[in-house]
Design goal:
7 strands, globular
Length: 319
């Protein structure tokens, strides 16, 4: 079955990458290649585009692209440094894109188990070759561990109540299907029905736990600074506050430099010198969000945020 994918912030992302026709680019989260195809359209004959994805279905879709300038590999984006080294492009990448989170084809395919509105196995693995799925988490984690991930990854107010109810119910009837879990959560989480399904936050938390998404992002951000060329651009699209906060804080930490104690007799020139010694990135560009026109076409763009940072134009010792 074919599933459509509409890339969010498409034009904004391509503009932020500032594509050079002869440049080297990496799409670290290929998905179904919406952004990648846009990059290829802007590259010249000497340009190259490399891509990664942890989902075998996405990699298969990428391998259908018949273009000598394009190469794709099956790998998590946390391994982008190692993959770039194997391709011989580490330190030479002019633009790197990360589009974080679940893709439209993964959501739309009920058999992948990401959606609480379509019945399917309680799976949620982005890499279908991985061992741990959502059913394992729901049916084996303790009340304490379920509460932790619901609260931390889902920011769910009723994390403890939901965790206790799940553990009690699974003793007699383990959870195996998405709609079963969604309906159960709709009953046990207090409050009247609203525009947001009561299962939303917990499904998000389970997906993040199953795929180790925040750890993946943290490792990928660190690796990005090591593979970008001077003046190379890192563009990250996030869809919820946890990811966006992590990206924002990372860019801030590695662009502003260390905070100095108040009252030190230090000149502005010295402060700037210390910042540059510490900085991996120039100060980040202003974050971008979808406009009204895009939101009318694609409701999934409503929570998307694009942040961009530019690698400093020199190489520090040890950087």
């Amino acid at each position: 079955m074919l599933f459509t994918h509409v890339p969010v912030l498409y034009e904004e992302t391509l503009q932020a990458l500032a594509i050079e026709p002869s440049g080297i680019y990496l799409d670290a989260t290929f998905g179904r290649g919406g952004h990648s195809r846009g990059i290829l359209e802007r590259l010249g004959k000497e340009g190259r585009l490399f891509a990664l994805d942890r989902d075998p279905a996405a990699v298969a879709a990428g391998k259908a692209i018949n273009d000598p300038r394009f190469t794709i590999a099956h790998a998590c984006f946390s391994f982008l440094k190692e993959q770039c080294e194997s391709w011989g492009i580490a330190g030479r990448v002019n633009g790197l894109l990360m589009d974080i989170g679940v893709s439209s084809p993964q959501l739309d395919d009920a058999e992948r188990g990401f959606s609480f509105t379509r019945d399917g196995p309680l799976d949620m693995r982005m890499d279908t070759e991985a061992e741990k799925d959502a059913a394992t988490v729901v049916n084996t984690y303790s009340v304490e561990d379920l509460t932790r991930i619901f609260k931390l990854y889902g920011e769910e107010r009723f994390a403890l109540k939901a965790a206790r109810a799940i553990v009690k119910r699974r003793e007699s009837a383990p959870f195996t299907r998405t709609l079963d879990l969604a309906a159960f959560l709709n009953e046990v989480i207090p409050g009247k029905p609203g525009p947001r399904h009561k299962a939303t936050r917990i499904f998000q938390a389970l997906r993040i736990e199953v795929n180790g998404e925040l750890d993946e992002l943290q490792q990928a951000l660190k690796a990005a600074s090591e593979v970008l060329a001077p003046q190379g651009r890192l563009c990250v699209i996030t869809f919820h506050s946890l990811e966006d906060r992590m990206v924002k804080n990372y860019f801030r930490e590695f662009s502003e430099g260390p905070a100095l104690p108040r009252g030190l007799p230090v000149s502005e020139e010295e402060v700037e010198r210390l910042r540059l010694l510490h900085a991996l990135f120039d100060r980040p560009l202003k974050p971008v969000r979808a406009g009204e026109e895009e939101l009318e076409r694609n409701v999934r763009a409503r929570s998307a945020t694009l942040r961009t940072a530019i690698r400093v134009n020199y190489q520090r010792e040890g950087a």
